[in-house]
Design a protein that fits this description.
- With about 450 residues, the chain is an alpha/beta fold.
- About 35% of the residues lie in helices and about 20% in strands.
- The protein has 2 domains: about 220 residues, UDP-N-acetylmuramoyl-L-alanine:D-glutamate ligase, CATH 3.40.1190; about 130 residues, Alpha-Beta Complex (Protein-Tyrosine Phosphatase, Chain A), CATH 3.90.190.20.
- The chain is built from 14 helices and 16 strands.
- The strands form 3 sheets. The protein has a 9-stranded mixed sheet with strand order 2-3-1-4-5-6-9-10-11, with helices on both faces. A 5-stranded mixed sheet has the order 12-13-16-14-15, with helices on both faces.
- Helix 1 runs antiparallel to helix 2.
- The protein is globular, with a radius of gyration of 22 Å.
- The protein binds zinc ion.
- Zinc ion (ZN) binds next to loops.
- Zinc ion binds next to loops.
Length: about 450
C-alpha cells in the first residue's frame, strides 16, 4: 500500500512537472515513473474502481467507440476514467488511472474505459482484468509498428483465453482475423456484425489484408464486403465461416460524414456520425454497453445525443470554404474516408496529408495500398500535403489523378486551397495524425480554428 501511494505521488508529481515544463504534455510520462516504482500499479489502481473496466482495441475506431461507451456510462451517473487518444499504450493507460487517483493513492471512479493499442492488449488484459474486452477489427496498420496480424491475433487470443468465465468478450464477427480469435476461446464471446447488403460492395479493396482463410490459407469467398476485409465470408474448403452475430445492425442509412441511422434490436438509432465504419463503432459500443448491464432502450436513446469526437471528423469554416477534417491513418481507414467523401458526400475538393513522424508510422509505403483511383473521375482539386507530400504526388500520378504540386508547408497548403477553390466550396481534408495536427495548428494561427483538438 505504501509502495502504491508512493508510485501515485511520484507519477502525479511527474505529470505536473512535465506539464509545467511543457515536455511531453504530461500524457504518458507519469505512467512510466509510477510503473518504475510499482510495476503492479495499474492492477492496484483499477482494483479501486467500484464497477470495473472495459478495454477496447482494434486498428480503427477505438477512440470513437471508447467515447461512445464512456458517454453511455456517464449518462447513468457513473464516474468514468479514460485515457486520451494517442496515449493508448500501457503507460498512457497507467497515466490516465493516476490522474484520477486521490492523495490517499486510491483511484476515485466507478468505471475505467480504456482504448488500447492491439499489440498492448494482452498486457492490458492481464493487468486490468476487464469486465468487458472489445476487439473492433484487425487491419494492417503502419507497416513498421507491429509484427504480422497473425502473431498479434494469436497473442490476443491467448490473453482472452485466460480471462475468467464471468468476463465478457465482445467481438466483430465480420472480421476474419477477429472471428478466428473468438472461435478458439473456451467461453463463447458476444458477436456483432452488420446485416444490410445494400450498403456492401462485392469486391475487396486493395488494402484488404485478411483475405485468406486463417485455417487452411485458401482465399475466402465474400458475399458482402462492408469495410476493408470486414464482411460476410466463408472458406470454400468449409473449415471456416463468419460466426452468426448475436447483435446486428440492419436498415443502414448513410448521409455522408453528417449522420447515419441504423436499427439495432428493433430500435431505430440516428447518430451525428458519418461513414459505414462508424456503424461498426456504434454497434460495438451498443454490444459492449449491453454486456456491462446497461438497458437497451436507454442505450438507443442516449446514443442519439452523442457528439462526435473532436478532430476525428471536424468542420471548420475557412475563408468561406467548409473544411471537413477526417483523420485517415492507414490503408483501411483511408479507403473508407475517401469512399465516404466521394460516394456519400459528393466531395470534389481534397487535401490529402501524409507525414512520416513516429505517430504516423515512419514507413509510408502503405499509401500504395490505398485506392486513390476512387478519386479519378470525381476529384476537381487534389492537394498532396505533409512532409511526405512528394510520395503522395507520385502515388496520385500512378492513379492518373491530375493533382496540384505537392506542398510540405501547411501555410502554402491553405494558400493554394484558397487559390484553387471558391467561397461556398466544401473541401475534404484527409490526413494522417501529425499531418492533421500541423494543418490545424496553421488554421489556429490564422484564427480559423479552436486550439483544442483532443478534448
Ligand atoms: Zn479454409
Amino acid at each position: 500500500m505504501i509502495r502504491k501511494t508512493a508510485a501515485v505521488w511520484a507519477g502525479k508529481a511527474t505529470g505536473t512537472l512535465s506539464r509545467v515544463t511543457k515536455r511531453g504534455g504530461g500524457t504518458t510520462l507519469p505512467g512510466d515513473v509510477a510503473r518504475a516504482i510499482d510495476p503492479k500499479i495499474l492492477t492496484r489502481l483499477t482494483e479501486d474502481l467500484t464497477e470495473g473496466s472495459a478495454v477496447i482495441t482494434g486498428t480503427n475506431g477505438k477512440t470513437t467507440t471508447a467515447r461512445l461507451v464512456t458517454w453511455l456510462l456517464e449518462g447513468v451517473g457513473q464516474r468514468v476514467v479514460s485515457n486520451r487518444a494517442g496515449a493508448n499504450l500501457i503507460f498512457g493507460v497507467t497515466a490516465a488511472a493516476l490522474s484520477k487517483a486521490g492523495a490517499d493513492g486510491r483511484l476515485k471512479a466507478d468505471w475505467g474505459v480504456f482504448e488500447i493499442d492491439e499489440a498492448s492488449l494482452p498486457k492490458a488484459v492481464l493487468e486490468i482484468q476487464p469486465k468487458a474486452t472489445l476487439v473492433l477489427n484487425l487491419f494492417r496498420d503502419q507497416l513498421d509498428r507491429y509484427g504480422e496480424l497473425e502473431s498479434i491475433a494469436k497473442k490476443i487470443e491467448k490473453a482472452l483465453s485466460g480471462l475468467p468465465a464471468a468476463a465478457h468478450v465482445v467481438l466483430n464477427a465480420d472480421d476474419p482475423r477477429v472471428a478466428e480469435i473468438g472461435l478458439s476461446l473456451p467461453n463463447p464471446p458476444l458477436w456483432f456484425g452488420l446485416d444490410d447488403t445494400r450498403v456492401a460492395s462485392k469486391e475487396l479493396p486493395h488494402a484488404a489484408d485478411a483475405r485468406t482463410c486463417p485455417r487452411c490459407g485458401s482465399s475466402l469467398v465474400f458475399d458482402a464486403v462492408y469495410v476493408g476485409h470486414d464482411g460476410v465470408y466463408n472458406c470454400p474448403n468449409h473449415d471456416f465461416t463468419r460466426p452468426a452475430p448475436d447483435v446486428t445492425a440492419t436498415d443502414i442509412t448513410l448521409n455522408g460524414f453528417e449522420s447515419l441511422a441504423l436499427t439495432i434490436g428493433g430500435t431505430r438509432i440516428e447518430m451525428p456520425l458519418g461513414g459505414l465504419y462508424n456503424c461498426y463503432n456504434v454497434l460495438a459500443a451498443y454490444a459492449t454497453a449491453c454486456s456491462l448491464g446497461l438497458d437497451a432502450a436507454y442505450i438507443a436513446e442516449r446514443l442519439r445525443t452523442f457528439k462526435a469526437a473532436f478532430g476525428r471528423q471536424e468542420r471548420i469554416e475557412f475563408r468561406g470554404r467548409e473544411l471537413i477534417l477526417v483523420l485517415s491513418k492507414n490503408p483501411a481507414g483511408f479507403n473508407e474516408t475517401v469512399r465516404t467523401a466521394v460516394e456519400l458526400a459528393g466531395g470534389t475538393n481534397f487535401v490529402l496529408g501524409l507525414n512520416d513522424r513516429k505517430a504516423d508510422g515512419t514507413d509510408v509505403s502503405w499509401i500504395w495500398d490505398v485506392d486513390f483511383e476512387q478519386l479519378k473521375d470525381t476529384a476537381r482539386v487534389v492537394i498532396p500535403a505533409g512532409n511526405r507530400a512528394h510520395d503522395l504526388a507520385v502515388r496520385l500520378k500512378y492513379a492518373v489523378i491530375g493533382a496540384e504540386p505537392p506542398q510540405t508547408d501547411p501555410g502554402k497548403v491553405l494558400d493554394l486551397l484558397v487559390k484553387r477553390t471558391s467561397e461556398g466550396d466544401t473541401v475534404h481534408v484527409l490526413c494522417t495524425y501529425t499531418a492533421m495536427l500541423d494543418l490545424r495548428a496553421e488554421l489556429v494561427r490564422r484564427g480559423w480554428a479552436h486550439p483544442y483538438w483532443e478534448t
